[in-house]
Amino acid sequence: MTMDRALRSNWEGHVRKLFGVVGIVGVLVLPLLAQSQAPSSTGAAAQGRGGAAGRGGGLPLGQLGALGQEVKRPPVQTGPAPRLSDGTVSLNGLWVGGGPVGDIAQGLPKGETLPLLPSAKALMDVRAQHETDDPHLWCMPMGVPRSTPYPFRFVQDITDKAPTHMFILHEGNIHSFRQIFMDGRKHPPELDPTWFGHSIGRWEGKDTLVIDTVGFNDKFWFDRKGTPHTEQLHTIERWTRPNMGTLVNTVTIEDPGAYSKPFTVTFTARLQAPGDEIMEYICQENNQYGVAGGHENPFNK
Q1: Which of 137, 190, 245, 259 has a beta carbon 3.0–4.6 Å from 77's, enabling a disulfide?
Q2: If phi over 0 gives left and psi between -120 and 50 gives alpha, with beta otherwise, what is residue 290?
């Protein structure tokens, strides 16, 4: 694991707890980063790793942000989206984004707020006082629709035939993956609650992949703010690719256990540069949070 990866895995959500002031971190750490990985026009470090679009600012790898190291990335590719032989849009590619990290409410239409039930709002208030309890910080999967600053890959057209499965491979947190059943099956009547739930997919026309998911556990947080859900959670994602470099995820969330009505959020993912790939990321390795960092595991209580 490179120094850049080790630092970023620790920074994601931890930087404020461990170091307090981001500016201090920049002063202490950026000289090390500059030595360990010089800027380049190619490679993962220069073209896509990080939580948001790089803003430069004269620093070798861009500005420091609350989500981790922001790095320089190439311009968005605006050409037409690729298509399969039957005209269906291809979602294949290595992407960053596509879901909430810090606050799921940022994906709401302008002027809307989350329709939280009082019990859900009370739980958020408790989590705000215990933000290090976020399971994602303890190497657990992020659930749906949460994203991370690390890339994910859609695996769609393995052959030219209609696939029976699609997969979303996540670099973050011990190489998580989702499988989407595309063979017309229904959700089973009884499901063991899981982090990513049970997903079935279908196409609306040639441009939109619809993923319907149920069977979630209630363990993961929607974001770093601790926005909650229950095991009644039901998500419907609509993935579209309006151009070569952009993937749009519009998610309708229904959970009568935590929200008074369904709501819809939209997030955008960005295609990474050619040649960039998912890197090996084992969450326990070089982890300076959790037990290794002297923190008590809240889930052992």
Answers
A1: 245
A2: left
Answer whether 144's CB lies under 8 Å from 213's CB.
Answer: yes
Tokens of 233: 């959670």
Residue type, 109: P
Instruction: For residue 19, count other CB atoms closer than 10 A to its CB.
Output: 16
Find tokens 């968005």 and name the residue: 76
pLDDT in tens, 168-206: 999 987 678 999 999 999 999 999 999 999 999 999 999
Q: What is the DSSP string of 177-223?
A: EEEEE-SSPPPPSS---BSS-EEEEEEETTTEEEEEEE-B-S-S-SS
Closest CA to 201 of 151, 147, 267, 144: 144
The pTM for the full model equals 0.73
pLDDT tens, residue by residue, 32-77 = 333 333 333 333 333 333 333 333 334 333 444 444 455 566 788 8
Sign of CA dihedral 60, 61, 65, 68: negative
From CA 182, how far away is CA 164, in angstroms rounded? 5
Looking only at the bridges linking them, the beta strands covering 64-65 and 208-214 are: unpaired
